[in-house]
Amino acid sequence: xxxxxxxxxxxxxxxxxxxxxxxxxxxxxxxxxxxxxxxxxxxxxxxxxxxxxxxxxxxxxxxxxxxxxxxxxxxxxxxxxxxxxxxxxxxxxxxxxxxxxxxxxxxxxxxxxxxxxxxxxxxxxxxxxxxxxxxxxxxxxxxxxxxxxxxxxxxxxxxxxxxxxxxxxxxxxxxxxxxxxxxxxxxxxxxxxxxxxxxxxxxxxxxxxxxxxxxxxxxxxxxxxxxxxxxxxxxxxxxxxxxxxxxxxxxxxxxxxxxxxxxxxxxxxxxxxxxxxxxxxxxxxxxxxxxxxxx
Length: 295
Fold this sequence. Notes:
Blueprint: E1 2-4, E2 8-9, E3 14-18, E4 29-35, E5 38-42, H1 50-59, E6 67-70, H2 75-78, H3 81-87, E7 94-98, H4 102-106, H5 109-115, E8 125-128, E9 133-136, E10 139-145, E11 154-158, E12 163-167, E13 172-175, E14 178-180, H6 190-202, E15 209-212, E16 216-219, H7 220-247, H8 251-262, H9 275-290
Parallel strand pairs: 5-6, 6-7, 7-8, 12-15
Antiparallel strand pairs: 1-16, 2-3, 3-4, 4-5, 9-10, 10-11, 11-12, 13-14, 15-16
């Protein structure tokens, strides 16, 4: 089993940076792809961590950043963009995202209202679609639509290093003992999500690793497990939460049941400190309500 969660270089062209979302370590992976002096960061995190992220980039020799690619338009991946650009005002940073993300990025009011966070409008975003190639001084990176988690999620395939950056599109696996599904509202689409999982399986022979936003780089048996078992895990969690909600709709009850069944050994979400897990379970409940599966 191979799980790479330490900051720094993990293949010939790629680095992992801990985005310290909500000021917590090990929750959000930012990635930097570098080739012949050109650097692209994948996702940006929240505003609170921007100065720390820039300091880390300097320490790793990855400053300045020339491009920022946003895997999707959720607040924890995009909120820091404008602050980051202002603090790096000597560099004209190109921001790239799915063509489907442009409206949410330019007009973030609906997302702000839903998630309860403030994201400033992000203008002049380069739109991407499936099959587009991002050229970093000769390193070719291919764009894939990985819809489902959102209608604007994209993945970036690095053929040279046999690695796929997927953002939140597949699963959240913070460590070996802490795994969370993907059906966060407001625009989760289960049929599109299953198409994305099949698309990932179809890439099996091309991949040695997968880079998750939440969290780290997974290889070997763990990579195969993600490919082969994520759909069943998703369905099991969905069925379980519906059952538990019908037994007792309290957030604490459902969170404790989830912990007991799916992540009993987690050191991140423990029974003694269940509040962080409750935060995520509430999203899942909201998602199931949006899907019309609970009331």
